[in-house]
Description:
By secondary structure, chain A is of the alpha/beta class. Chain A is built from 20 helices and 21 strands. Residues 243-263 and 266-274 of chain A have low confidence and may be disordered.
Amino acid sequence: MAAYLAERGHRRVVVMGEGTPGDAEYRAFFTAQAALYGLEIADSYYFSAKPADGEVDQVLIRFRDVDPDALVYCGFGFHSRLLNPALARIGWQPEKIMNAAIMWALASPEWCAALEGWVGIEQTNGDDDHVKKNPNWESMLDRYQSRFGERPDGTMTALLYDQGRAAVEAVVNATVLDGPGLAIGLEQIKTMPATLGGPGTYIGFGPEDHRGYRGDFMFMKQLRLGKFHFVSYHRPQWPSNHRSTDPGGGTAGAGEQTGTAKSRVSLVVNPEGNGVVSCSCVFPPSTNLVAYAQAAERLGYRRIWLYDSPALYGDVWIALARIAAATEKIGLGVGVAVASLRHPMVTASAIATIEELAPGRLVTALGTGYTGRESMGQRPMRWQDLATYIDQVRGLLLGDEVIIDGAPAKMLHGADYAPRRPIHSPVWAAPSGPKGFATARKLGVPGVITPMPPTEDIDAFDDVALLTFGTVLRPGEDADSVRVRQALGPMIATSFHGLIHADPDFVDGLPGGRAWRLALERKWPADRRHFAHTGHLCEVTELDRPLVEAAGAEILTIGWTGSAAAIREHRELAASQGITEVTYAPMGPDIPSELRDFATIE
Amino acid sequence: MGETNEISCSVRTARDLDLLAHPAIPATWNLTEPIYVGPADTGASPLVTVGFLSDMPIGDSLADYLDPIILALEDAVQESRLRHRVRIEASHVCGLPTGRPEDVLAAYHDLVGRGCVLILSTGVTNNALVLRDTINTSQVPYITMAGPPGLPGGTASPSPTGATARRPPSWPRTSPSGVIAG
């Protein structure tokens, strides 16, 4: 746990558990490991067998006030179900990690819900197909299902099967079938296959060596929507690895989980001195959004943008409210709000509410809704209709009377229901082609957000934000790297989602394209083909997975992918093109590390 | 691998057996009968009794815990690795932190008294610590899922000859200590 936290760039943590002898052991060991990995334990607290009323809330408020990088639960976990409700009550959503106590989630649906969002140690196969698996696990589950008619996909099953196998070996190896004889028999086990853990796990004992599991048996999963999702194997590195840098300026360290102590986004001044690029980030509204937002704020990102695709993600305005409440200063952006999804008054009222929660931090970019509408089987709306919509929203925010659907409308909110008008919250546009840019110029919006470097005249805009995708390559990584494929996979899939509508013939000429198109057409009839947008910019579906495999070395040409030096060149080029803000979309299973890697490019 | 080895198991699943309150130990339950697993033909190989102690502070999942062990034994029979017939004696004791340490100790002693020469367990850390000295005294090894540094079997007394006291194996699962112990 300490290594995992350090590798994610955390330096100050708070620790809680229970006041039992076992927890004291956990505490002592975590304290020692925290020192090794340079973690400061800013505060700690151990509960009694039965916490007093309000005690959990009081402790968490105390923890929150020391502003730690993460909340650590290190104990038996019998009180773990009290934590999430208490965190919700006090409005704190820290990054949360616990030991194997997270397996209490298996005890009941209620307990599972109470541990939502926690990362913890759960040691059966990961759910990510890019991760090499322990071959003993699925095979054992197949036999289990055949024998007992069930498939109990959890750590306890693996642990107990392994115990049964160890018992067999103890019997087989024992010279005398009594207690001491079987103890000797156990000590003869050297490299017994393990069902638990990763592909490098095995079991061995020896005289005075009674810790059976060896290798990559301990790894992290996160509970999301009631299921465990693989986060990373525990393959620890020396802390010194993170103090060096590679010649290209990237962070040192290799493997599937690396990080760095450096933690501030740098600004890039372009070589000609005519612009400054700031770094923002963009996410789909998700369960983990608050933790990502808090990480982005710590890292110094200028703004967090959120997508607006209700068929694919959570509600954008509710998500903005969540992160507005959980962050202090980072900018907030809707990128982009799809006009046709809401009456102009709904959008104006939502803007007003966020302005009340986080004054001066919001930018709302409005667009015609490519993905937001396409994923519901609709074409994007017309630019002329969007222009009308933007005018209506701006008018409402200024306190004007606006004609909408033929009737006068006006924000009627009293003092306790919205800020006083006028509300000067920036409303941008999201153009991608000539018609959109022309409309944006005509509207006189102060800024635009665009998915590609503009070839249009952008002098009229104070701010030009460019959506970017990709990943910072770490030393030793190439196109075969599991992490790289995980980080870029969603973007590959999303590219095909767009291309299939724009140019199916072109899709056929891409690696894996024809087979994918045929599979898509088999899976979804023409009137439901937009369901293929599943996982847009966040996941790779089984349908799309072959595309990632087929990408080969070309995967490294996707977006802003490359060494730190290569990405620095991208940013300098963007600055020379008049881009003022790079909006980075991290993807894959380890968003905080992607954020950190991108943030630390000098 | 002997694909045709015939397996004998006394139950379809451990869930077919009920739990009965232990007549003498509080907060402890036993299966109504032992489970027998092994090759149909054991030849001259004697019966071996293995215990299982569930010590979770809640729940009645004893049968759920036993099915993976039954499968492990049956797989080993199929592979011609296990030639003995194994009797599984199983108990559930409500362990710490909600239960009492004396009940955990009594439940372990009870399994030893029923002839177990090895005891498998859920073995959460608190109860493993309670049992540590008792296990060393009884000399009946106990496999636990816990792995804090305070459990025996570490590297505190390395002996190049291997002539050391028999100590119970502890399987690191829950503790970071396992990370560096390999």
